[in-house]
User: What shape does this take?
Amino acid sequence: MPHNTPVLLDEIVMKTQEILRYATKLHTDYLNQRDLTELQAAFAGCCGLAQCVAGYAFQDLGVPAKPLATQSLEGYWMQGHAALVVEVSEGPDSGWYLIDPTFCQFCVTEASEAAPSPANYLKQSGAGLDIITSLRSRGYLKLTPANAALYLSAFCKGIAPLQSDEAMAFMKNPPPHPYHFRRDIECEDYSRENLARYNQLIDCSSPSLRSITRTP
Assistant: This one.
């Protein structure tokens, strides 16, 4: 079990984003058609891939990880998105964390009034701005009942589908949802075998990760 939680999460997010950059370079024609001028914008539509890349790594490291899809908020969701929730059960930084390496896709361009982005709703409060800052700078967020509810509401046009304690319970045990983007790599799904074929798995035996997760 990891004993240096922030360093571990930083490393997993960084390696996940490196793989996403490689994947999107395989589709430069598609990116050019959308006139994407910032590297962060290349993460648009990559949330399903990021969810699986990071999720397999956490599994390999013995960290419980659960896939989250905003589409599970039936009757409320307006923006589909995939992320992970992980539980770190030991050490001073123990707790539940939202892992969202592609949230920055919602912060690149100004959204229209007809289709505001989740970030637009979060910008309406100081607590929401804190969520944006954490997810843009580090790609993860330590969850509390309050910020769990606020994060989920951002994908539901600013309307909270669940109150604080209910939102936290939802995050800890998100319902299954058959949601994956599949346009980022040329394969049918994001199974471990297919990602390995495209060299899109994190090597959890690398010295950098071993040094973080070894028992002190």
